[in-house]
Design a protein that fits this description.
Number of strands of chain B: 5
CATH class of chain B: Alpha Beta
Strand order of the largest sheet of chain B: 2-1-5-3-4
CATH architecture of chain B: Roll
CATH topology of chain B: Ubiquitin-like (UB roll)
Number of strands of chain A: 10
Structural class of chain B: mainly beta
Strand content of chain A: 15-25%
Number of domains of chain B: 1
Largest interface: A-B, 38 and 16 residues
Structural class of chain A: alpha/beta
Number of helices of chain B: 1
Distance between the termini of chain B: 39 Å
Strand order of the largest sheet of chain A: 6-5-4-7-8-10-9
Shape of chain A: elongated
CATH superfamily of chain B: Beta-grasp domain
Radius of gyration of chain A: 20 Å
Order of helices and strands of chain B: EEHEEE
Strand content of chain B: 25-35%
CATH superfamily of the largest domain in chain A: NAD(P)-binding Rossmann-like Domain
Oligomer: heterodimer
Chain lengths: 253, 66
């Protein structure tokens, strides 16, 4: 029997035929013990269909690692909202997202919020968006103002902790908390992404095993004109990419 | 007396504190994580901790924006 024939029988109209973790042409002959997933565009997938689709895109071994992972995100502004969205899209198993603030108009220019969310708590607004992107990620929200003292207890069980604060004092405090009290946890901070300088100067700099700082290390929002969505986005996706690398066992030393 | 600060030799006196060093380098103490001889220093020690000859100091300075 060919894959397309099976699809016609079990799920007429299926657009994406996945065989053993990879998208496969319909005329492929099926073998004993093959694993198939049949996905129809426009249909809300089940959790299993979503998982199979992500396995097909990323490869099953990677996807299993992502699914087992818990990532903490401190701050849900320009960095944190973008990091969170990127990680739910790839299917990280659980996110713990934390911010005490509400969405205001001046956030919209660079943060993943929408006009109709102005006034909502960032944790609530972002979770609504994240769930639309992938409803099968567990998302715990914390509407709290984090401190150097509270961070290790709150994020003690995460595999990777991402620092997405705006305030440089909190960036330093969070790194200190992680280095002193969370030595086995992956940590990705950020420093320097303001303005419209070259995107090529945003880097992920390893400062310890499993500890990275993303940014150009100098473009301060106080000195540059402001934060622009594109350059902040570059930094955010550097952070998200580094999360992936750590979850896949790369860059642990 | 000298310390090694982020890979560079830095002269100090026998009374130089970590806070003095940061002031000399024009770094805001709140925005800096400091490690001396592989030990991360608590923030409330910056003003009182005296540096010693030969100390290996690493400073990580953060700027704002995110």
């Amino acid at each position: 029997m060919r894959l397309g024939e099976l699809a016609s029988e079990l799920k007429p109209g299926a657009d994406v035929l996945v065989l053993n973790g990879a998208p496969t042409p319909a005329d492929t002959l099926l073998q004993d013990k093959d694993i198939c997933s049949l996905i129809k565009v426009g249909e809300i997938p089940s959790a299993l269909e979503m998982e199979r689709a992500l396995e097909a895109r990323h490869n099953p071994e990677f996807q299993h690692r992502f699914k087992r992972a818990t990532v903490g995100i401190m701050g849900l502004g320009g960095l944190g909202s973008a990091v969170a969205l990127s990680l739910v899209k790839i299917g990280v198993g659980k996110l713990i997202i934390s911010d005490y603030d509400v969405v205001v108009l001046s956030n919209i220019h660079r943060q993943h919020y929408f006009i109709d969310q102005i006034g909502l708590k960032k944790t609530i607004a972002l979770k609504k968006t994240l769930v639309r992107a992938n409803p099968f990620v567990a998302i715990k929200t914390l509407d709290v103002k984090l401190t150097e003292q509270s961070i290790p207890g709150i994020f003690g069980d995460v595999d990777v902790l991402v620092e997405c604060f705006d305030n440089p004092g909190m960036k330093a405090a969070a790194l200190r908390a992680a280095l002193q009290h969370m030595p086995e946890t992956g940590y990705i901070g950020a420093s320097g992404m303001a303005g419209y300088g070259s995107g090529n100067t945003i880097v992920s700099r390893r400062i310890r095993p499993r500890v990275f700082i993303v940014g150009d290390n100098e473009s301060d929002v106080q000195d540059c004109t402001t934060l622009f969505a594109p350059r902040v986005g570059i930094a955010a996706h550097h952070q998200a990419n580094q999360v992936i690398r750590l979850l896949l066992g790369i860059d642990k030393e | 007396m000298y310390i090694n600060c982020n890979g560079r030799q830095q002269p100090i006196s026998d009374t130089t504190t970590l806070q003095d060093l940061l002031r000399e380098l024009d770094l805001a103490p709140d925005n800096v994580v400091a490690e001396i001889n592989t030990k991360i220093i608590d923030r409330d020690q910056y003003e009182t901790l005296r540096l010693s000859d030969g100390d290996q100091v690493e400073l990580i300075r953060f700027v704002g924006g995110g």
